[in-house]
Structure to design on (59 residues):
């Protein structure tokens, strides 16, 4: 029984998988944030162009 507990305490494969999962989640959050910010900026610019051409944005 002590061998099992000793091997279990030294096994780091589960911790590595969790670390990779956390890294992937962090990358996903950064990508989502960047796309959201970029999308808002692009929408604002297109609305400015449409307004400048004498149209109504969103119509």
């Amino acid at each position: 029984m002590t061998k099992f507990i000793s091997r279990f305490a030294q096994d780091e494969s589960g911790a590595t998988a969790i670390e990779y999962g956390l890294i992937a989640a962090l990358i996903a959050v950064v990508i989502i944030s960047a796309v959201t910010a970029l999308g808002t900026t692009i929408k604002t610019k297109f609305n400015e162009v449409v307004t400048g051409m004498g149209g109504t944005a969103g119509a």
